[in-house]
Amino acid sequence: MVVNKQALSQATIKRIPVYYRTVKALQQSGVKRVRSDRLSKLVHIAPATIRRDFSNFGDLGRSGYGYSVDLLAEVFGELLEVHSEEQMLLVGCGNLGRALLTNNFRRNPDLSIVMGFDTDPSLIGTTIAGIPIYNLATLSEKIRPGMHTAIVCVPSSAQAAVISELEANGITAILTFAPKPVPAQPETTIRYIDLTSELQALLFVDHQNKLTQERKAPLKQS
């Protein structure tokens, strides 16, 4: 399958991991095919949006039959370049970092945080959910060959120095929860997660939906 990834919208790209995780769960449950209306209930995405997204990837199903779960898992796995478990490191093992280490992508067997780093003496040398926590100063010693992905849960003031250190050790894919963009090498891909902006966007959409419903509501007879 050849897909022009550059032609995909950002919205579709964001939904691909959701589709992949869901069809992998269906596959593991022995489900062989799924219709867009059932998939819609599982991923909370409109059936029309699912069908439009899937149309980007060729003939994945047919009317009245639905989609082959095995084929969907294969297609989305290829799109996400899932060939083996992606082992990641995490920097910043405070409250947010601890929550991520504890959860550790348990719904997705292809993703796994295998080590954490911090500068807090009370955390260094401990384990969280079985994952060892090392001194950030020992990053170059502890990082495993082939690792190129990191999650950063540090304050904005420390983000630039941490990302620079990660880049110096071969990390090229970084997810950070400090929303302020920082300088990075051209080959580095950084995704910034701004929880405040996400929440504000959510509240805005919720408010707009309520206004729409109010406009559609029938007028009460006097």
From TrEMBL:
Q: Which residues bind NAD(+)?
A: 92-97
Q: Which residues cross the membrane?
A: none
User: What's the chief localization of this chain?
Assistant: cytoplasm
Q: Which GO terms describe its cellular component?
A: cytoplasm
- A GO term (biological process) for this protein? negative regulation of DNA-templated transcription
As annotated, the DNA-binding region falls at 18-57
Is Transmembrane found in the keyword set? no
Which residues are in the CoA-binding domain? 81-181
The family database entries (Gene3D superfamilies) matched by this protein are listed as: NAD(P)-binding Rossmann-like Domain (3.40.50.720), Winged helix-like DNA-binding domain superfamily/Winged helix DNA-binding domain (1.10.10.10)
For this protein, the record's InterPro entries field holds: CoA-bd (IPR003781), NAD(P)-bd_dom_sf (IPR036291), Rex_DNA-bd_C_dom (IPR009718), Tscrpt_rep_Rex (IPR022876), WH-like_DNA-bd_sf (IPR036388), WH_DNA-bd_sf (IPR036390)
Q: Which UniProt keywords apply?
A: Cytoplasm, DNA-binding, NAD, Repressor, Transcription, Transcription regulation
Q: Where in the cell is it found?
A: Cytoplasm
Give the GO molecular function terms.
DNA binding; DNA-binding transcription factor activity
- Which Pfam families does the record match to this protein? CoA_binding, Put_DNA-bind_N
Its family remark reads: Belongs to the transcriptional regulatory Rex family.
The UniProt subunit note reads as follows: Homodimer.
Function description: Modulates transcription in response to changes in cellular NADH/NAD(+) redox state.
Name of this protein: Redox-sensing transcriptional repressor Rex
The organism encoding this protein is Lacticaseibacillus zeae
